[in-house]
Amino acid sequence: MKEIQLHYNCAGEYIIMSLIEHFIADHYVSVIIASLVFVLLRKYLQTKKSPPGPWSLPWIGHLFLLNKGDTRNTFRELRAQYGDLVSLSLGSLSILVVSGLDMLHEVFVKHGKYFDKRPQMFTTVKVGQGKAVVNASGHVWREHRTFLVSNMKEIGISHINFEANVLEELQPFLQLLASTEGKDFDPRLCLQTATSNIICSISFGKRFDYEDPDFKDILEIVESNMKLVGATAIVNYFPFLEFLPGDMFKCKQCLNNVDKVQRILQTWIDRHKLTLEPSKPRDIIDLYMLDMQQKVQANLNTSMSEDQLLKLIGDLFVGGTETTATTLRWTLVFLVHHPEVQERIYSEIMTTLNGRTQLSVLDQRQMPFTSAVTMESQRLGDIAPFSLPHSNTEPVRIGSYVIPAGTLVIPNVNSVHLDPELWANPSEFRPDRFLSDDGSLVKNSALMPFFIGQRVCPGQSLAKLELFHFITSIVQHFHILPSLMEGLPQLHGHLGLTYIPLPHTLRFVARCQSEINPS
Ligand code: HEM
Protein backbone atom coordinates (compact mmCIF):
# COMPACT_ATOMS: atom_id res chain seq x y z
CA MET A 1 0.00 0.00 0.00
CA LYS A 2 2.92 2.33 0.80
CA GLU A 3 4.35 1.71 -2.67
CA ILE A 4 0.96 2.39 -4.25
CA GLN A 5 0.66 5.70 -2.36
CA LEU A 6 4.01 6.76 -3.83
CA HIS A 7 2.52 6.79 -7.36
CA TYR A 8 -1.21 7.32 -7.00
CA ASN A 9 -3.13 9.65 -4.80
CA CYS A 10 -6.02 7.27 -4.06
CA ALA A 11 -7.06 3.67 -4.48
CA GLY A 12 -9.58 4.59 -7.25
CA GLU A 13 -6.84 6.12 -9.38
CA TYR A 14 -4.70 2.99 -8.81
CA ILE A 15 -7.51 0.71 -10.02
CA ILE A 16 -8.12 2.75 -13.18
CA MET A 17 -4.40 2.89 -14.06
CA SER A 18 -4.08 -0.90 -13.50
CA LEU A 19 -7.00 -1.53 -15.85
CA ILE A 20 -5.43 0.71 -18.52
CA GLU A 21 -2.03 -0.99 -18.13
CA HIS A 22 -3.65 -4.42 -18.52
CA PHE A 23 -5.62 -3.27 -21.56
CA ILE A 24 -2.47 -1.86 -23.23
CA ALA A 25 -0.51 -5.06 -22.45
CA ASP A 26 -3.28 -7.20 -24.01
CA HIS A 27 -3.92 -4.96 -27.06
CA TYR A 28 -0.62 -3.18 -27.62
CA VAL A 29 -0.65 -3.67 -31.44
CA SER A 30 -4.15 -2.19 -31.72
CA VAL A 31 -3.15 0.71 -29.43
CA ILE A 32 -0.12 1.56 -31.61
CA ILE A 33 -2.22 1.45 -34.80
CA ALA A 34 -4.99 3.57 -33.23
CA SER A 35 -2.43 6.16 -32.03
CA LEU A 36 -0.86 6.30 -35.48
CA VAL A 37 -4.26 6.75 -37.15
CA PHE A 38 -5.12 9.46 -34.60
CA VAL A 39 -1.86 11.38 -35.24
CA LEU A 40 -2.21 11.13 -39.04
CA LEU A 41 -5.89 12.09 -38.96
CA ARG A 42 -5.13 15.12 -36.77
CA LYS A 43 -2.33 16.20 -39.09
CA TYR A 44 -4.62 15.73 -42.14
CA LEU A 45 -7.41 17.76 -40.52
CA GLN A 46 -4.97 20.50 -39.52
CA THR A 47 -3.53 20.88 -43.03
CA LYS A 48 -7.09 20.84 -44.35
CA LYS A 49 -7.87 23.78 -42.10
CA SER A 50 -4.99 26.06 -43.22
CA PRO A 51 -5.29 27.75 -46.61
CA PRO A 52 -3.23 25.99 -49.28
CA GLY A 53 0.27 26.98 -50.32
CA PRO A 54 3.36 25.64 -52.09
CA TRP A 55 5.82 23.16 -50.54
CA SER A 56 8.40 24.71 -48.26
CA LEU A 57 11.90 23.93 -47.03
CA PRO A 58 12.44 23.04 -43.39
CA TRP A 59 13.52 25.98 -41.22
CA ILE A 60 13.74 28.65 -43.96
CA GLY A 61 10.21 27.98 -45.28
CA HIS A 62 9.48 29.98 -48.45
CA LEU A 63 12.50 32.28 -48.30
CA PHE A 64 13.48 31.14 -51.80
CA LEU A 65 10.08 32.25 -53.17
CA LEU A 66 9.86 35.59 -51.40
CA ASN A 67 13.44 36.51 -52.24
CA LYS A 68 13.05 35.93 -55.95
CA GLY A 69 12.42 38.91 -58.25
CA ASP A 70 9.26 41.04 -58.11
CA THR A 71 7.05 39.82 -55.25
CA ARG A 72 3.95 41.14 -57.08
CA ASN A 73 4.52 38.57 -59.83
CA THR A 74 5.23 35.80 -57.30
CA PHE A 75 1.93 36.54 -55.53
CA ARG A 76 0.11 36.69 -58.89
CA GLU A 77 1.36 33.20 -59.77
CA LEU A 78 0.53 31.86 -56.30
CA ARG A 79 -3.00 33.26 -56.53
CA ALA A 80 -3.52 31.65 -59.95
CA GLN A 81 -2.43 28.28 -58.52
CA TYR A 82 -3.85 28.27 -54.95
CA GLY A 83 -6.60 30.92 -54.83
CA ASP A 84 -7.28 34.08 -52.83
CA LEU A 85 -5.82 32.78 -49.56
CA VAL A 86 -2.28 31.40 -49.74
CA SER A 87 -0.27 30.09 -46.77
CA LEU A 88 3.47 30.64 -46.67
CA SER A 89 6.09 30.52 -43.93
CA LEU A 90 9.41 32.14 -43.05
CA GLY A 91 11.34 30.73 -40.12
CA SER A 92 8.77 30.01 -37.45
CA LEU A 93 6.37 32.63 -38.79
CA SER A 94 3.14 31.72 -40.62
CA ILE A 95 2.24 34.09 -43.44
CA LEU A 96 -1.11 34.51 -45.17
CA VAL A 97 -1.38 36.36 -48.50
CA VAL A 98 -4.89 37.69 -49.10
CA SER A 99 -5.82 38.57 -52.71
CA GLY A 100 -8.87 39.69 -54.67
CA LEU A 101 -11.51 42.34 -53.93
CA ASP A 102 -14.03 40.03 -52.23
CA MET A 103 -11.49 38.22 -50.08
CA LEU A 104 -9.80 41.48 -48.96
CA HIS A 105 -13.26 42.67 -47.82
CA GLU A 106 -14.00 39.34 -46.14
CA VAL A 107 -10.74 39.39 -44.14
CA PHE A 108 -10.13 43.11 -43.46
CA VAL A 109 -13.70 44.43 -43.24
CA LYS A 110 -16.00 41.54 -42.24
CA HIS A 111 -13.38 39.98 -39.94
CA GLY A 112 -11.45 43.26 -39.62
CA LYS A 113 -11.50 43.49 -35.84
CA TYR A 114 -9.53 40.24 -35.59
CA PHE A 115 -6.87 41.37 -38.05
CA ASP A 116 -6.27 44.89 -36.75
CA LYS A 117 -2.97 44.09 -34.97
CA ARG A 118 0.56 44.54 -36.22
CA PRO A 119 2.90 41.51 -36.24
CA GLN A 120 5.48 41.50 -33.44
CA MET A 121 8.82 41.82 -35.22
CA PHE A 122 12.00 43.92 -35.43
CA THR A 123 10.37 46.79 -37.38
CA THR A 124 7.35 47.15 -35.10
CA VAL A 125 8.87 46.21 -31.72
CA LYS A 126 12.41 47.63 -31.97
CA VAL A 127 12.16 50.42 -34.57
CA GLY A 128 8.59 51.52 -33.77
CA GLN A 129 8.74 50.38 -30.10
CA GLY A 130 5.11 49.26 -30.48
CA LYS A 131 4.05 52.83 -29.77
CA ALA A 132 1.54 55.41 -31.12
CA VAL A 133 -0.26 54.22 -34.31
CA VAL A 134 1.65 52.62 -37.20
CA ASN A 135 3.50 50.03 -35.07
CA ALA A 136 1.11 49.76 -32.13
CA SER A 137 -1.68 47.29 -31.39
CA GLY A 138 -4.45 47.03 -28.78
CA HIS A 139 -5.27 49.88 -26.39
CA VAL A 140 -2.31 52.14 -27.32
CA TRP A 141 -3.14 51.90 -31.02
CA ARG A 142 -6.88 52.43 -30.53
CA GLU A 143 -6.44 55.50 -28.33
CA HIS A 144 -3.85 57.14 -30.58
CA ARG A 145 -5.70 56.29 -33.77
CA THR A 146 -8.92 57.77 -32.34
CA PHE A 147 -7.00 60.95 -31.47
CA LEU A 148 -5.54 61.17 -34.99
CA VAL A 149 -8.76 60.38 -36.84
CA SER A 150 -10.82 62.87 -34.85
CA ASN A 151 -8.26 65.61 -35.50
CA MET A 152 -7.67 64.82 -39.17
CA LYS A 153 -11.27 64.73 -40.33
CA GLU A 154 -12.56 66.36 -43.45
CA ILE A 155 -11.38 69.92 -43.93
CA GLY A 156 -13.57 72.39 -42.11
CA ILE A 157 -14.33 70.09 -39.16
CA SER A 158 -10.75 69.78 -37.99
CA HIS A 159 -9.19 72.37 -35.65
CA ILE A 160 -6.27 72.73 -38.02
CA ASN A 161 -6.64 74.52 -41.33
CA PHE A 162 -4.86 71.95 -43.47
CA GLU A 163 -5.58 73.81 -46.67
CA ALA A 164 -3.70 76.90 -45.41
CA ASN A 165 -0.74 74.64 -44.54
CA VAL A 166 -0.73 73.10 -48.02
CA LEU A 167 -1.10 76.44 -49.82
CA GLU A 168 1.73 77.95 -47.75
CA GLU A 169 4.03 75.15 -48.92
CA LEU A 170 2.97 75.43 -52.57
CA GLN A 171 4.54 78.86 -53.12
CA PRO A 172 8.20 77.97 -52.36
CA PHE A 173 7.66 74.68 -54.24
CA LEU A 174 6.40 76.40 -57.41
CA GLN A 175 9.19 78.97 -57.15
CA LEU A 176 11.71 76.17 -56.99
CA LEU A 177 10.22 74.59 -60.14
CA ALA A 178 10.27 77.97 -61.89
CA SER A 179 13.92 78.46 -60.94
CA THR A 180 14.84 75.35 -62.99
CA GLU A 181 13.99 77.44 -66.12
CA GLY A 182 12.70 74.47 -68.08
CA LYS A 183 15.97 72.53 -67.77
CA ASP A 184 16.16 68.81 -66.91
CA PHE A 185 15.25 68.45 -63.25
CA ASP A 186 14.52 65.53 -60.91
CA PRO A 187 11.53 66.64 -58.77
CA ARG A 188 11.96 63.80 -56.22
CA LEU A 189 13.78 65.73 -53.50
CA CYS A 190 11.68 68.88 -53.67
CA LEU A 191 8.45 66.82 -53.53
CA GLN A 192 9.73 64.97 -50.46
CA THR A 193 10.81 68.24 -48.84
CA ALA A 194 7.42 69.84 -49.54
CA THR A 195 5.38 66.91 -48.19
CA SER A 196 7.64 66.68 -45.09
CA ASN A 197 7.23 70.39 -44.50
CA ILE A 198 3.44 70.00 -44.56
CA ILE A 199 3.76 67.38 -41.80
CA CYS A 200 5.93 69.88 -39.88
CA SER A 201 3.25 72.56 -40.31
CA ILE A 202 0.43 70.39 -38.99
CA SER A 203 2.60 69.01 -36.16
CA PHE A 204 4.59 72.05 -35.03
CA GLY A 205 2.56 74.86 -36.55
CA LYS A 206 5.47 76.02 -38.69
CA ARG A 207 7.23 75.12 -41.90
CA PHE A 208 11.00 75.01 -42.18
CA ASP A 209 13.28 76.72 -44.61
CA TYR A 210 14.52 74.14 -47.14
CA GLU A 211 18.07 74.95 -45.96
CA ASP A 212 17.38 74.60 -42.19
CA PRO A 213 20.15 72.22 -40.93
CA ASP A 214 17.91 70.31 -38.46
CA PHE A 215 15.21 69.88 -41.13
CA LYS A 216 17.78 68.64 -43.67
CA ASP A 217 19.20 66.24 -41.04
CA ILE A 218 15.75 64.75 -40.39
CA LEU A 219 15.04 64.32 -44.11
CA GLU A 220 18.38 62.60 -44.69
CA ILE A 221 17.93 60.27 -41.72
CA VAL A 222 14.36 59.36 -42.68
CA GLU A 223 15.51 58.61 -46.23
CA SER A 224 18.46 56.57 -44.96
CA ASN A 225 16.13 54.52 -42.75
CA MET A 226 13.73 53.91 -45.65
CA LYS A 227 16.64 52.15 -47.36
CA LEU A 228 17.89 50.43 -44.18
CA VAL A 229 14.46 48.98 -43.38
CA GLY A 230 14.92 46.91 -46.58
CA ALA A 231 18.25 45.54 -45.27
CA THR A 232 16.80 44.80 -41.83
CA ALA A 233 13.67 43.08 -43.25
CA ILE A 234 15.16 39.60 -42.95
CA VAL A 235 15.58 40.13 -39.16
CA ASN A 236 11.79 40.34 -38.92
CA TYR A 237 11.59 36.65 -39.83
CA PHE A 238 14.86 35.37 -38.35
CA PRO A 239 15.20 37.50 -35.18
CA PHE A 240 18.49 35.90 -34.00
CA LEU A 241 20.28 37.60 -36.97
CA GLU A 242 20.05 40.89 -35.07
CA PHE A 243 22.48 39.55 -32.49
CA LEU A 244 25.22 38.38 -34.87
CA PRO A 245 28.53 40.22 -34.33
CA GLY A 246 29.01 43.41 -36.35
CA ASP A 247 26.03 45.07 -38.03
CA MET A 248 25.56 42.85 -41.08
CA PHE A 249 21.83 43.60 -41.36
CA LYS A 250 22.14 47.30 -40.42
CA CYS A 251 19.93 46.93 -37.34
CA LYS A 252 22.19 49.03 -35.10
CA GLN A 253 22.53 51.77 -37.72
CA CYS A 254 18.75 51.81 -38.19
CA LEU A 255 18.12 52.08 -34.41
CA ASN A 256 20.79 54.82 -34.10
CA ASN A 257 18.99 56.79 -36.80
CA VAL A 258 15.69 56.43 -34.93
CA ASP A 259 17.45 57.78 -31.81
CA LYS A 260 18.87 60.78 -33.69
CA VAL A 261 15.46 61.74 -35.16
CA GLN A 262 13.81 61.35 -31.75
CA ARG A 263 16.38 63.68 -30.16
CA ILE A 264 15.75 66.41 -32.77
CA LEU A 265 11.96 66.00 -32.51
CA GLN A 266 12.17 66.13 -28.70
CA THR A 267 13.93 69.52 -28.76
CA TRP A 268 11.28 70.85 -31.18
CA ILE A 269 8.46 69.53 -28.97
CA ASP A 270 10.09 71.00 -25.81
CA ARG A 271 10.40 74.42 -27.42
CA HIS A 272 6.84 74.20 -28.69
CA LYS A 273 5.34 73.31 -25.30
CA LEU A 274 6.55 76.58 -23.81
CA THR A 275 4.15 78.55 -26.02
CA LEU A 276 1.04 76.37 -25.61
CA GLU A 277 -2.15 78.39 -25.09
CA PRO A 278 -4.98 76.03 -24.05
CA SER A 279 -7.67 78.20 -25.66
CA LYS A 280 -5.89 78.28 -29.04
CA PRO A 281 -4.54 74.89 -30.08
CA ARG A 282 -2.34 75.50 -33.13
CA ASP A 283 -1.39 72.02 -34.25
CA ILE A 284 -1.23 68.29 -33.49
CA ILE A 285 1.23 68.75 -30.59
CA ASP A 286 -1.00 71.31 -28.86
CA LEU A 287 -4.10 69.15 -29.37
CA TYR A 288 -2.28 66.09 -28.01
CA MET A 289 -0.96 67.89 -24.92
CA LEU A 290 -4.43 69.25 -24.12
CA ASP A 291 -6.13 65.89 -24.65
CA MET A 292 -3.53 64.18 -22.44
CA GLN A 293 -3.82 66.77 -19.66
CA GLN A 294 -7.62 66.43 -19.66
CA LYS A 295 -7.43 62.64 -19.36
CA VAL A 296 -4.82 62.77 -16.58
CA GLN A 297 -6.87 65.34 -14.64
CA ALA A 298 -10.00 63.19 -15.02
CA ASN A 299 -8.04 60.15 -13.79
CA LEU A 300 -8.84 58.25 -16.98
CA ASN A 301 -6.88 55.19 -17.96
CA THR A 302 -4.74 56.64 -20.75
CA SER A 303 -1.68 55.52 -22.67
CA MET A 304 -1.00 59.09 -23.83
CA SER A 305 2.44 60.39 -22.84
CA GLU A 306 5.19 62.63 -24.20
CA ASP A 307 7.06 59.53 -25.28
CA GLN A 308 4.06 58.36 -27.31
CA LEU A 309 3.68 61.85 -28.77
CA LEU A 310 7.26 61.67 -30.07
CA LYS A 311 6.42 58.41 -31.86
CA LEU A 312 3.13 59.81 -33.15
CA ILE A 313 4.95 62.69 -34.86
CA GLY A 314 7.40 60.12 -36.26
CA ASP A 315 4.40 58.13 -37.60
CA LEU A 316 3.10 61.20 -39.42
CA PHE A 317 6.50 61.66 -41.08
CA VAL A 318 6.80 58.00 -42.03
CA GLY A 319 3.14 57.63 -43.08
CA GLY A 320 2.64 60.98 -44.75
CA THR A 321 5.75 62.07 -46.65
CA GLU A 322 7.16 59.33 -48.89
CA THR A 323 3.64 58.04 -49.75
CA THR A 324 2.33 61.42 -50.93
CA ALA A 325 5.58 62.39 -52.69
CA THR A 326 5.70 59.04 -54.54
CA THR A 327 2.05 59.36 -55.65
CA LEU A 328 2.86 62.82 -57.04
CA ARG A 329 5.96 61.46 -58.79
CA TRP A 330 3.89 58.73 -60.52
CA THR A 331 1.28 61.31 -61.53
CA LEU A 332 3.99 63.45 -63.16
CA VAL A 333 5.36 60.39 -64.97
CA PHE A 334 1.90 59.57 -66.38
CA LEU A 335 1.25 63.20 -67.30
CA VAL A 336 4.49 63.57 -69.22
CA HIS A 337 3.53 60.47 -71.21
CA HIS A 338 0.08 61.99 -71.87
CA PRO A 339 0.31 65.69 -72.85
CA GLU A 340 -3.36 65.53 -73.94
CA VAL A 341 -4.32 64.72 -70.31
CA GLN A 342 -2.32 67.75 -69.08
CA GLU A 343 -4.30 69.93 -71.50
CA ARG A 344 -7.66 68.53 -70.35
CA ILE A 345 -6.73 69.24 -66.71
CA TYR A 346 -5.55 72.74 -67.66
CA SER A 347 -8.80 73.50 -69.42
CA GLU A 348 -10.82 72.24 -66.41
CA ILE A 349 -8.70 74.43 -64.09
CA MET A 350 -9.24 77.54 -66.25
CA THR A 351 -13.01 76.97 -66.50
CA THR A 352 -13.26 76.47 -62.73
CA LEU A 353 -11.04 79.43 -61.83
CA ASN A 354 -13.14 81.68 -64.03
CA GLY A 355 -10.81 84.65 -63.51
CA ARG A 356 -9.51 83.77 -60.02
CA THR A 357 -5.84 82.77 -59.56
CA GLN A 358 -6.04 80.09 -56.84
CA LEU A 359 -8.25 77.01 -56.64
CA SER A 360 -9.82 75.98 -53.34
CA VAL A 361 -10.53 72.43 -52.22
CA LEU A 362 -14.25 73.18 -52.64
CA ASP A 363 -13.64 73.55 -56.40
CA GLN A 364 -12.72 69.87 -56.54
CA ARG A 365 -16.38 68.89 -56.90
CA GLN A 366 -16.54 70.76 -60.20
CA MET A 367 -13.40 69.08 -61.51
CA PRO A 368 -14.29 65.43 -62.23
CA PHE A 369 -11.57 64.95 -64.84
CA THR A 370 -8.79 66.11 -62.48
CA SER A 371 -10.17 63.78 -59.78
CA ALA A 372 -10.26 60.93 -62.32
CA VAL A 373 -6.59 61.56 -63.20
CA THR A 374 -5.61 61.41 -59.52
CA MET A 375 -7.56 58.19 -59.01
CA GLU A 376 -6.07 56.56 -62.11
CA SER A 377 -2.55 57.60 -61.02
CA GLN A 378 -3.17 56.01 -57.61
CA ARG A 379 -4.48 52.83 -59.21
CA LEU A 380 -1.75 52.36 -61.80
CA GLY A 381 1.06 53.79 -59.62
CA ASP A 382 -0.08 51.33 -56.91
CA ILE A 383 2.49 52.73 -54.50
CA ALA A 384 1.58 50.48 -51.54
CA PRO A 385 0.94 47.16 -53.35
CA PHE A 386 0.89 45.19 -50.06
CA SER A 387 -0.34 47.99 -47.76
CA LEU A 388 1.25 47.22 -44.36
CA PRO A 389 1.32 43.80 -42.67
CA HIS A 390 -1.46 42.95 -40.23
CA SER A 391 -1.77 40.20 -37.62
CA ASN A 392 -4.30 38.42 -35.38
CA THR A 393 -3.95 37.45 -31.73
CA GLU A 394 -6.52 34.63 -31.83
CA PRO A 395 -7.35 31.91 -34.39
CA VAL A 396 -9.91 33.13 -36.95
CA ARG A 397 -12.11 31.00 -39.20
CA ILE A 398 -12.43 32.24 -42.79
CA GLY A 399 -14.80 29.96 -44.72
CA SER A 400 -13.54 26.40 -44.20
CA TYR A 401 -10.06 27.55 -43.13
CA VAL A 402 -8.64 28.50 -39.75
CA ILE A 403 -5.98 31.21 -39.63
CA PRO A 404 -3.72 30.51 -36.62
CA ALA A 405 -3.08 33.25 -34.04
CA GLY A 406 0.04 35.32 -34.71
CA THR A 407 -0.10 34.95 -38.51
CA LEU A 408 1.50 37.74 -40.53
CA VAL A 409 -1.28 38.75 -42.92
CA ILE A 410 -0.31 40.49 -46.18
CA PRO A 411 -3.06 42.38 -48.06
CA ASN A 412 -2.30 41.90 -51.77
CA VAL A 413 -3.79 45.20 -52.95
CA ASN A 414 -1.91 44.85 -56.23
CA SER A 415 -4.14 41.89 -57.11
CA VAL A 416 -7.10 44.32 -57.11
CA HIS A 417 -5.55 47.42 -58.68
CA LEU A 418 -4.35 45.47 -61.71
CA ASP A 419 -7.09 42.84 -61.95
CA PRO A 420 -8.24 42.50 -65.60
CA GLU A 421 -11.63 41.28 -64.32
CA LEU A 422 -12.15 44.62 -62.59
CA TRP A 423 -10.48 47.05 -65.00
CA ALA A 424 -10.37 46.90 -68.81
CA ASN A 425 -6.70 46.93 -69.95
CA PRO A 426 -5.47 47.49 -66.39
CA SER A 427 -1.89 48.36 -67.36
CA GLU A 428 -3.03 51.35 -69.46
CA PHE A 429 -3.35 54.88 -68.04
CA ARG A 430 -7.00 55.76 -68.74
CA PRO A 431 -8.51 58.39 -66.40
CA ASP A 432 -11.80 58.14 -68.33
CA ARG A 433 -12.50 54.80 -66.66
CA PHE A 434 -13.54 56.87 -63.62
CA LEU A 435 -15.98 59.00 -65.62
CA SER A 436 -19.54 58.21 -66.73
CA ASP A 437 -20.83 59.00 -70.24
CA ASP A 438 -22.04 62.41 -69.02
CA GLY A 439 -18.55 63.21 -67.62
CA SER A 440 -19.38 62.88 -63.93
CA LEU A 441 -17.07 61.07 -61.52
CA VAL A 442 -17.71 57.37 -60.91
CA LYS A 443 -16.21 56.01 -57.70
CA ASN A 444 -15.07 52.40 -57.71
CA SER A 445 -14.65 50.33 -54.51
CA ALA A 446 -11.83 48.41 -56.20
CA LEU A 447 -9.63 51.51 -55.86
CA MET A 448 -8.04 51.24 -52.41
CA PRO A 449 -4.73 53.19 -52.28
CA PHE A 450 -5.38 54.03 -48.60
CA PHE A 451 -6.49 50.44 -47.98
CA ILE A 452 -9.73 49.48 -46.20
CA GLY A 453 -10.98 48.36 -42.80
CA GLN A 454 -9.83 49.14 -39.28
CA ARG A 455 -6.40 50.45 -40.25
CA VAL A 456 -7.46 52.48 -43.30
CA CYS A 457 -5.05 55.44 -43.69
CA PRO A 458 -6.06 58.14 -41.17
CA GLY A 459 -4.22 60.78 -43.23
CA GLN A 460 -6.25 60.32 -46.42
CA SER A 461 -8.11 63.66 -46.24
CA LEU A 462 -4.81 65.52 -45.97
CA ALA A 463 -3.23 63.34 -48.67
CA LYS A 464 -6.13 64.00 -51.11
CA LEU A 465 -5.89 67.72 -50.40
CA GLU A 466 -2.15 67.71 -51.11
CA LEU A 467 -2.60 65.70 -54.31
CA PHE A 468 -5.31 68.07 -55.53
CA HIS A 469 -3.35 71.28 -54.88
CA PHE A 470 0.03 70.02 -56.09
CA ILE A 471 -1.29 68.44 -59.30
CA THR A 472 -3.50 71.39 -60.24
CA SER A 473 -0.85 74.00 -59.37
CA ILE A 474 1.85 72.27 -61.37
CA VAL A 475 -0.40 71.91 -64.43
CA GLN A 476 -1.78 75.45 -64.02
CA HIS A 477 1.71 76.95 -64.15
CA PHE A 478 3.86 74.53 -66.19
CA HIS A 479 3.98 72.28 -69.23
CA ILE A 480 5.51 69.02 -68.03
CA LEU A 481 7.87 67.85 -70.76
CA PRO A 482 10.26 64.92 -71.16
CA SER A 483 13.95 65.34 -70.41
CA LEU A 484 15.99 66.55 -73.39
CA MET A 485 18.78 64.14 -72.48
CA GLU A 486 16.85 61.01 -71.40
CA GLY A 487 13.50 61.29 -73.19
CA LEU A 488 10.37 59.89 -71.53
CA PRO A 489 10.68 58.28 -68.07
CA GLN A 490 10.13 54.53 -67.67
CA LEU A 491 6.62 53.37 -66.83
CA HIS A 492 7.84 50.60 -64.55
CA GLY A 493 9.38 51.29 -61.15
CA HIS A 494 11.29 49.75 -58.27
CA LEU A 495 9.56 47.79 -55.53
CA GLY A 496 10.99 48.59 -52.09
CA LEU A 497 8.90 49.57 -49.09
CA THR A 498 6.72 51.37 -51.63
CA TYR A 499 6.60 51.10 -55.43
CA ILE A 500 8.60 54.07 -56.70
CA PRO A 501 9.38 55.39 -60.21
CA LEU A 502 12.91 54.76 -61.50
CA PRO A 503 15.20 57.83 -61.28
CA HIS A 504 14.34 60.32 -64.04
CA THR A 505 14.33 63.99 -64.89
CA LEU A 506 11.54 66.12 -66.39
CA ARG A 507 11.27 69.68 -67.66
CA PHE A 508 8.89 72.19 -66.12
CA VAL A 509 8.37 74.91 -68.72
CA ALA A 510 6.37 77.88 -67.38
CA ARG A 511 3.08 78.47 -69.22
CA CYS A 512 3.26 82.18 -68.39
CA GLN A 513 6.57 83.58 -67.04
CA SER A 514 4.97 86.44 -65.09
CA GLU A 515 2.74 84.26 -62.87
CA ILE A 516 5.41 82.86 -60.53
CA ASN A 517 8.23 84.99 -59.21
CA PRO A 518 11.27 82.94 -58.26
CA SER A 519 12.47 84.40 -54.95
C1 HEM B 1 -1.09 59.43 -51.05
C2 HEM B 1 -0.69 59.36 -49.81
C3 HEM B 1 -0.90 58.21 -48.87
C4 HEM B 1 -1.12 56.89 -49.14
C5 HEM B 1 -1.18 56.21 -50.50
C6 HEM B 1 -1.25 56.21 -47.86
C7 HEM B 1 -1.50 54.87 -47.73
C8 HEM B 1 -1.56 54.22 -46.50
C9 HEM B 1 -1.70 52.80 -46.36
C10 HEM B 1 -1.87 51.81 -47.50
C11 HEM B 1 -1.69 52.54 -45.03
C12 HEM B 1 -1.70 51.16 -44.37
C13 HEM B 1 -3.04 50.73 -43.89
C14 HEM B 1 -2.87 49.36 -43.24
O1 HEM B 1 -2.28 49.24 -42.18
O2 HEM B 1 -3.30 48.39 -43.87
C15 HEM B 1 -1.53 53.78 -44.33
C16 HEM B 1 -1.46 53.89 -42.95
C17 HEM B 1 -1.20 55.08 -42.31
N1 HEM B 1 -1.08 56.32 -42.89
FE1 HEM B 1 -1.24 56.77 -44.85
N2 HEM B 1 -1.12 57.14 -46.85
C18 HEM B 1 -0.92 58.37 -47.42
C19 HEM B 1 -0.77 59.58 -46.77
C20 HEM B 1 -0.75 59.73 -45.41
C21 HEM B 1 -0.66 61.00 -44.71
C22 HEM B 1 -0.59 62.36 -45.39
C23 HEM B 1 -0.61 60.70 -43.38
C24 HEM B 1 -0.53 61.61 -42.18
C25 HEM B 1 -0.60 62.86 -42.14
C26 HEM B 1 -0.71 59.27 -43.23
C27 HEM B 1 -0.67 58.60 -42.03
C28 HEM B 1 -0.83 57.24 -41.88
C29 HEM B 1 -0.79 56.55 -40.60
C30 HEM B 1 -0.54 57.19 -39.24
C31 HEM B 1 -1.03 55.19 -40.88
C32 HEM B 1 -1.12 54.04 -39.87
C33 HEM B 1 -2.59 53.72 -39.57
C34 HEM B 1 -2.76 52.57 -38.56
O3 HEM B 1 -1.84 51.80 -38.37
O4 HEM B 1 -3.84 52.49 -37.96
N3 HEM B 1 -0.80 58.71 -44.48
N4 HEM B 1 -1.47 54.81 -45.25
Written overview of the protein:
The chain is an alpha+beta fold. It folds into 2 domains: 1-48; 49-516, Orthogonal Bundle (Cytochrome p450), CATH 1.10.630. It contains 19 helices and 10 strands. It has helices spanning 2-7, 11-26, 28-49, 63-66, 71-82, 101-110, 122-127, 138-151, 162-178, 188-204, 213-237, 251-273, 284-297, 306-320, 322-337, 339-353, 368-381, 414-417, 460-477, and strands spanning 85-90, 93-99, 390-391, 396-398, 401-403, 408-412, 478-482, 493-495, 499-501, 506-510. Strands 1-2-6-3 form a 4-stranded mixed beta sheet, with helices on both faces. Strands 4-5 form a two-stranded antiparallel ribbon. Strand 8 (493-495) and strand 9 (499-501) form a beta hairpin. Helix 9 (162-178) packs antiparallel against helix 10 (188-204) and helix 15 crosses helix 17. The radius of gyration is 28 Å and the shape is globular. The N and C termini lie far apart (101 Å). The model is unreliable at 1-10 (pLDDT under 50). The site of protoporphyrin IX containing FE has 23 residues, from helix 14, helix 15 and helix 19.
